[in-house]
Amino acid sequence: MAASDRRARLREQLDRLRTPQLSVAVFVVCVGLLLNVEPLVLTLVDAADAGEVVGAVLAVALLVLAYSQVTWPLVFGGLGQRRLVLRATAYAFGVGVLCLALGPHWFDMAFLPVALLFTCLPVGAALAGAAASIATVVWGALRFGSEVGEAAQLAVHTVLLAAVFYVLLRLATMLRYVEAGREAAERAAIVEERVRLGRDLHDVAVHHFTAIRLKAEIATRLYDAEPPRARRELVEIADASVQGLSRVRSLIHGYRHSGFGRTLAEAANLLQTAGVELRSELEVRPEQLPEVTEQVLCWVLTEGVTNALRHSSPTVVIVRLDARDGRTSLQVSNDGVLPTAPGGRRGHGLAGLSERLEAVGGTMSSVRTADDRFTVTASVPGEVCR
After folding, report:
1. Cα angle 375-381-386, degrees, rounded to a multiple of 5
2. Sheet holding 316-324, edge to edge
3. Is residue 152 part of a domain?
4. Has residue 203 been placed in a domain?
5. What is residue 368's three-state secondary structure?
6. Which domain holds residue 177?
């Protein structure tokens, strides 16, 4: 492994240490390590010769290494389930061998492999492994001269401590999953915000670029025949550019429409420039709309008018706004759909509108009729203010 990769993994592990699971995880790992060292202390007190001490030191070193190789990735992640199972099984086997070989000082730590087996293995395999571990301890106790009652008490002691330590291990593992879930939620929120920003930028940019293109075409046609009107169109192009830039900047900082009435007036001005009549049939006053409803309907109106100019050659655009049965509906309809227009097929703008409406529990439909009319209908739940 390259030095840069090792440094990156070290930084990642250090970052994980700064999570809320740190206290529980470190407690579990450190307590387990101390329990692995406990038999060594007892052996040093009762050791009959140097060989027994050396053997105990080597055994404890191996146990500490094996225990850390299981518990650290278990509570902090970074190791596959299969490798965790193999390491936990190897640790349990090692503890069992030491209990049979080195005597009673090692029996009290038998609950550690039992807890690790239940944490890493499926229930059936964990039960089999735990039964084997407890049987090994009981057999070892009887082999070293313990009474049957003492061996049974040791088995109960092992089971109870294993249950307590299993809960601690599961708690540390669950905290890791909670932290991972929090990070995933943060990443999802970032992605969602990027999608929203991209969608809003698309709608704002397309609307204003359509207006600029339309006015530029008119100014070009009128440049020689009607210079004063051409100049007015050029001034409006400059105003539309400034307004579009302002809205893009505002969008990045949390753009909100100025209101349905203002949006409708801007749409009427744009359509008038293109020689298109706007008919508005409003059964609800814009100021009666709830804020959330007004915002999303502003987007629907803007996209509907923009689509009419981009994909049709309309003579009239009809805007209907009404509210009944606890829902507010907006319909934007235009004639003159071009033969090459994608009748009934949704583009990026309509797809973005559908996502906005779904976010507030609304619905949207778009249809092209046989008389070359295209209609976008949006419906949003919520009572209007009377």
Report:
1. 105
2. 277-282, 316-324, 327-334, 374-381, 363-368
3. yes
4. no
5. strand
6. 18-187
Question: If pLDDT is split at 50, 70 and 90, which confidence band does 384 have?
Answer: low
Provide the strand spans (E) within 219-315.
Answer: 277-282
In a domain, 116, yes or no: yes
Burial (CB < 10 A; 0-12, 13-18, 19+), residue 290, is: middle
Provide the Cα torsion 159, 164, 167, 173; round to 10°. -100
Judged against a pLDDT cut of 80, whether residue 336 lies above it is answered with yes
- Distance, CA of 36 to CA of 40 (rounded, Å): 8
Q: At which of 171, 187, 203 does a domain end? A: 187
The whole-number pLDDT of residue 333 equals 93
Sequence-ordered list of residues with C-beta below 8 angstroms from that of 91, at least 6 positions apart, any chain: 63, 66, 67, 70, 112, 113, 116
330, part of any domain:
yes
pLDDT digits (tens, 9 = 90+) for 230-251: 777 777 777 777 677 767 666 6
How far apart, in Å, are the Cα atoms of 51 and each of 48, 57, 63, 287?
A: 9, 10, 18, 92
Kindly report the number of other CB atoms within 10 A of residue 351's CB atom. 13
| CATH number of the CATH domain containing 266 | 3.30.565.10
CA distances from 188 to 157, 194, 201, 338 (A): 46, 10, 20, 40
Across the range 165-176, mean pLDDT stands at: 80
As for how many domains the chain has, the answer is 2
Same domain, 171 and 283: no
- The residue among 310, 90, 295 whose CA lies nearest residue 217 is 310
Residues 147 and 283 in one domain: no
pTM for this one? 0.46
With cut-offs at 50, 70 and 90, classify the pLDDT of residue 382: confident
Pairing of strands 277-282, 316-324: parallel
Q: Are residues 268 and 137 in the same domain?
A: no
Q: How far apart are CA 295 and CA 345, in angstroms?
A: 24
